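---------- Forwarded message ----------

FYI, see the Lipoprotein record below. Original note from H. follows.
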Amino acid sequence: MKTIIYFLAVATVAIFIGCFSAKNKKMNTTTYVQSIDGPIDASQYINKFGYKQIGEWKLLNPSPLPLSDSDILTIKTHIPEWLQMNNKSLDSALLNDLKTISNVELKKRMKYIFTVFMSIESDVYLLSLNNGKDKINVYILKNPEKGIVYPFKDEEWNRNLSYNDKK
């Protein structure tokens, strides 16, 4: 009988200590995000660098790679070609605007939206353009090895990544 009471007392204390420590400490859990190569353990990005998971394929980087002047020049060079390949009807005003826009103004129009793992980690910037009454969203990836990745991505690419996003 003493053994049973002793065992119950020890078990109660162990449970109490376990509950108390679980409230005060974050449990280490493994977080995965999808990539082209399969699931990637994103725990180190979340725990060490402060990333936040915002979707099955997406992380929010607290310090995305900044866009340099050479990045903006690359975007400015490729955007008319990409628009003509991916859009059947383009407003001539949009094409003229892109020819005359300053690098500073183009950079202001770009907004970091998420980080994704393709073959390597890439930060994704969104450039929204007005094409007459329509809006064209251009998703531009920047990774630490290649810089700006061309070809750019379209709204369908984003929809495919976003089907399981956290709300």
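H. also flagged this: The longest strand covers residues 121-131.
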